[in-house]
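quick one: flavin-adenine dinucleotide bound model?
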Amino acid sequence: MSDERARRLVIVGGGPSGLAAAWKASAEAQRAGAALEVVVLEADARVGGKARTGFADGLLIETGPQGFLDDQPVLREMIAACGLAEEVIEPEPAANRRYIYRGGKLRQLQRSPLAFARSGLLGPFGLARLAMEPLAPARPGGDDRLGAGTWSSSSPAPTAPARQGGDDRLGAGVLTSGDATPHTDESLFDFAARRMGRQAAARLISPVVLGIFAGDARRLSAAAAFPRLVAMEQAHGSLFKAMRAGRKRGVPPPGHRTFRRGIEALPRAAAALPGIDVACNRRVTAIQHRGGGFAVTSSAGGLAADAVVVAADLPSAADLVDGVSPAAAEELRQIESPPIAVVHTAFEVAAAAHIEPAYGFLVARGEGIRMLGCQYETATFSGRSPEDRFLTRSMYGGSVDPDAAELDDDALIELTLRELRRTVGIDATPTSTSVARWPHAIPQYAPGHPQRVARIEAALDPIDGFYLAGNVLNGVGLSRAVAVGAECGERAAKRLLA
Ligand SMILES: Cc1cc2nc3c(=O)[nH]c(=O)nc-3n(C[C@H](O)[C@H](O)[C@H](O)COP(=O)(O)OP(=O)(O)OC[C@H]3O[C@@H](n4cnc5c(N)ncnc54)[C@H](O)[C@@H]3O)c2cc1C
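yep, here:
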């Protein structure tokens, strides 16, 4: 690399993670008073990745994340740097109310044990087994590597289900992210069944997992996908005891937040920060490690880089890593990332007058309903719909039913209307509808993921100046993707400016 020009950091992917890397790298250069060229190459025509907000018919349509978990100080820092601190909004109080559709009806996730018992979510045997959770022996710790927090992970239901602040798309609000202590890996279902009984694992935890990963609890790693649950068991021997201890310490759970004008406000503002050069419509097709630097090939030609952060989603991330480490790429290709379709339907508010305002509901499998869950956007954050409209957002697909995400738009809308009629009794013609698709929506951290992460990191570690960001390895939620991106940006800048 020439000594005459400023050192160049190329970031592949202008989603939340890539832009966090760019912001942090450029802030680091400014702090050091040094010149650093920060270039973001984004394949799409606009930045934001899955953080995408649309506006139509007076509605604010979130096709990807609807909000974020306020659990990462660095995300708060980025929001402030983007001038968005005053734009952050909290959920409406009604969003504390959440339901699971099971046994042909909506059942509210209740906070008090008595109300929970009456909700009918669990039968007498399931309730009795759940009550014995504190007595279930803790699994001895191992020495396996763990993934970091997801956008919402850990901690089961009945005593604290419906609290404000769960940042899952459809989840029960019972899960918060956090670091875990070492433990051998097992599936989330096995973990939940061991601690709370199989009925609670099937009827409570499995639907919640649909809301977070659109995934199958039997095919997700407890340690990687829900590290805090595992940590709670390790630290307290019981999830209930851990929750009780948390309440005693009076530490509030991280809140669910978004921006007044939608989630895309963050990537848009970050891309406009000084010191960052963003190029859209630039799909990177290859990265090669050459002579102490990197040759980055994109649809616009070649670019030399002194360091590279890959913040692309799967499967693109795997293809790009292939140029520097085929072994790491092979590991990345093993991580499933199934499709999701997001269907928005708006109705005259009178059609939903009988519906109690709430966050929405998740659907237990085996109910003959393909919808993974439905959020009442109108009741969750203010400003999502005009006063005379009721806006819902329903999800299809994921690893449990990928074919549903492939249905054509008309079929998906028809299915949504049928299923809304059956689940919540909305029987009206929508005033507007829209369908968004994510062919590779959310990485699925399968059992063994922590070990895979360790192998990938070991393969990439010797490649000086190459960093893998995004939500592929260390937490699928936006806040974690931002934290990982910021860390990669900071490390890259420090290395280049040393
Ligand atoms: C339906 C849905 C709902 C979600 N809801 C929530 C939620 O409520 N809360 C939450 O915290 N998280 C949620 N998530 C997860 C959230 O979207 C991710 O955490 C976040 O988008 C990750 O950011 P990222 O930058 O790592 O990846 P992405 O947002 O996927 O961005 C990756 C970027 O890389 C670009 N790219 C890919 N390949 C290339 C290439 N070869 N060259 C150049 N650019 C490339 C892409 O175009 C994209 O812009 C949701 C996800 C989905 C799909």
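Residues 478-497 form the longest helix (20 residues).
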